[in-house]
Design brief:
globular, Heat Shock Protein 90
Length: 564
């Protein structure tokens, strides 16, 4: 029997990674009930933003100064100092608007020429990790999804390498640095108490005239951890199908962009042996059509979005957010969308201002016919659009300065032109995509080591984030997520993860500890492998001066590290 790889043309060989992973996933991931036929292996396949553990290098003294500036700015920005016992605002039903805390994972295989060190093949997987223990099934199934993707990449590596080496050698005589690449990346589009939905992008180059790009949608029920089909969230599946069909006919087929048999393919995707690729955010559902599915390569990827506002009757009420507002990532710095809900498409672009010598002189934010340029030589990261419940719109532009120091520039877009508002130091917008009432930001912390601390926020009327508490959750600390006590250490035992309650105790030398929460200045709670929580109170206010019970911090723990 031939392998999946052998049955696929060389240009499409990258897709074999997904088919192999699908067989693994079918045994480890639940699925929601549906009237639709079971998805085929090729479409059930998990198809794949930097690891939180991988902190960029920076000088310790510089980061201490920057951290002080960031803390001062956070206070002047007016972020709230709510009590830990009432950390988040209540929703209409008296509960807390929930949010999933997502971080990213990273795995890679890189092959180089042993003589020239030139790259021959790169294969990477950047996946998502759910860190909310109360959603245990979701955590397990999402983890299994990305584990299967990585397993399948490793299984296919030998075949890819053989082809990549042949290609590399064939180009060597022409002095061309040629190599194969296969990259899986993930982008969350919704992550709340109802749904986790993300885009899994596969792109790369495996020979031929051009590279390839495929996009897949994966959606889970947050409560059960089950993977859902489009029919699972639809109240009127037939109506949804007809609307997508009409949109394709009007926007694409009329211009000759689609294959002649696109309608038959579409019907099979909705009602036959296959499944449409789709995601759901807080504004509606998007259906994706990869190249060669209903259109030639020249037409590029095609998608159709059906919004909750236009067609609420197509979707089950429990999946439609009760509050307005959204957070949305801008793809590749470009966003064509209705920002303000007036029915008109707005054209938003965020990009680097580069001269003829490829020097970065700054960056620009352009909205329709208005552009603002700032003279900042920082590296651009991902930008986000945030709209509040009253229809005001902001753009958060992620930037990385010296030593990869993160900061966010805020622009208001409400009046149709970008207007600079403020800069948030030491902060990154997390992969979580909910609404303005509850979203997550990561702050660069330098306290008992260098890491990211995650905190929940809501959006103020002036576009600034307002923190629900003054504490930070810690995920993926250091290289392996642990610290080990070097000696007996004083602590409070029996506390919760916020560090409250408990009684004085001694943590024995050799205890393995997982940092879980801190205020970033005076205490940190850690969990043992057996689930016990300890709070360590810290004296001293800067690198090299901190101690626990009079013991210098570097004499307290193995695994303690500061980037730089």
């Amino acid at each position: 029997m031939r392998s999946i790889t052998q049955m696929i043309p060389a240009r499409k060989k990258a897709l074999a990674v997904f088919a192999a992973a699908a067989l693994i996933l079918s045994a480890c991931s639940g699925s929601g009930s549906s009237e639709q036929p079971e998805t085929s292996a090729a479409n059930e396949t998990p198809v794949s933003v930097s690891t939180a553990a991988g902190e960029s290098a920076s000088a310790a003294d510089d980061t201490q100064d920057q951290a002080g500036t960031a803390a001062s700015q956070k206070e002047t920005a007016g972020q709230t100092d709510a009590a830990a016992e009432n950390p988040q605002p209540e929703d209409e039903e008296g509960g807390v608007p929930d949010i999933l805390h997502l971080t990213t994972t990273y795995e890679s295989l890189v092959d180089t020429d042993p003589e020239t060190y030139a790259t021959i093949l790169t294969m990477t997987v950047q996946g998502l990790k759910v860190n909310d223990e109360k959603y245990a099934a979701l955590c397990e199934n999402v983890g299994a999804y990305w584990d299967a993707v990585w397993d399948s990449v490793q299984e296919q590596h030998a075949d890819y390498y053989a082809d990549a080496l042949e290609f590399h050698n064939s180009m060597a005589s022409e002095d061309i640095d040629a190599y194969y690449s296969v990259e899986h990346t993930a982008q969350a589009v919704r992550s709340d108490e109802k749904l986790l939905s993300f885009r899994h992008m596969l792109e790369g180059y495996t020979g031929g005239a051009h590279g390839f790009y495929e996009e897949y949608g994966v959606t889970y029920d947050t409560q059960t951890g089950d993977r859902l089909t489009l029919a699972d969230i639809a109240a009127d599946y037939d109506g949804l199908y007809e609307t997508v069909k009409q949109e394709l006919e009007t926007e694409y087929a009329a211009n000759g962009d689609l294959f002649d048999d696109y309608a038959e393919t579409l019907q099979n995707l909705f009602y036959g042996d296959e499944q449409p690729e789709w995601t759901v955010d807080r504004t509606g559902v998007t259906i994706y059509f990869n190249t060669y599915v209903i259109a030639p390569y020249a037409s590029g990827p095609i998608s159709v979005t059906v919004t909750f506002a236009e067609h609420p009757e197509y979707f089950k009420a429990e999946y439609i957010p009760q509050e307005s507002g959204y957070i949305r990532q801008i793809d590749w710095g470009c966003g064509d969308m209705d920002l303000t809900g007036d029915g008109a498409v707005d054209h938003l672009y965020v990009g680097s201002d580069v001269d003829e010598n490829n020097n970065i002189n700054g960056y620009y934010v352009s909205l329709n016919d208005s552009t603002v340029t700032r003279p900042d030589q920082a590296r651009l990261g991902v930008s986000w659009v945030i709209s509040d419940i009253d229809g005001r719109v902001w753009c958060y532009v992620q930037l990385y300065g010296d030593n990869d120091w993160p900061y966010i520039d805020i622009y208001e877009l409400t009046k149709g032109a970008p207007a600079y508002v403020d800069t948030l130091q030491a902060m990154e917008l997390s992969a979580s995509c909910t609404g303005p009432e509850n979203f997550c930001l990561a702050s660069r912390l330098e306290f008992l080591g260098s890491y990211k601390g995650y905190e929940d926020y809501d959006l103020r009327e002036d576009g600034h984030p307002s923190a629900h508490t003054e504490t930070y959750a810690i995920y993926d600390y250091g290289m392996d997520g642990t610290l080990t006590a070097k000696c007996d250490l004083p602590a409070l035992a029996g506390v919760n993860d916020y560090g409250t309650g408990g009684s004085e105790a001694t943590v024995p030398a050799g205890t393995v500890l997982h940092p879980v929460r801190t205020d970033g200045k005076s205490w940190m709670t850690m969990r043992t492998d057996s689930g016990e929580y300890y709070r360590f109170d810290v004296d001293g206010d800067s690198y090299g001066t901190r101690n626990i019970g009079g013991i210098p911090e570097f004499d307290c723990f193995d695994g303690l590290f500061y980037a730089g």
